[in-house]
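Okay, is this right?
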Amino acid sequence: MKEDIEKWHTRPLHKRYSVLYLDGLYVKLRRETVEKEVIYVVLGVNEEGYREILDFFIGGQESAYG
């Protein structure tokens, strides 16, 4: 499964996108403990008008101190 994700992350992309969106979503992830972490998603609209998820990244943990 990790190999599939790595293959997806390194796939070739179009050279141009008309629009790029970057958004973050806090979700509870279970590792050693369960904590809220942000998942950043990069979405592109190609020149034909189709939306694609270009990539995603797991960011830091939610905190009251920013």
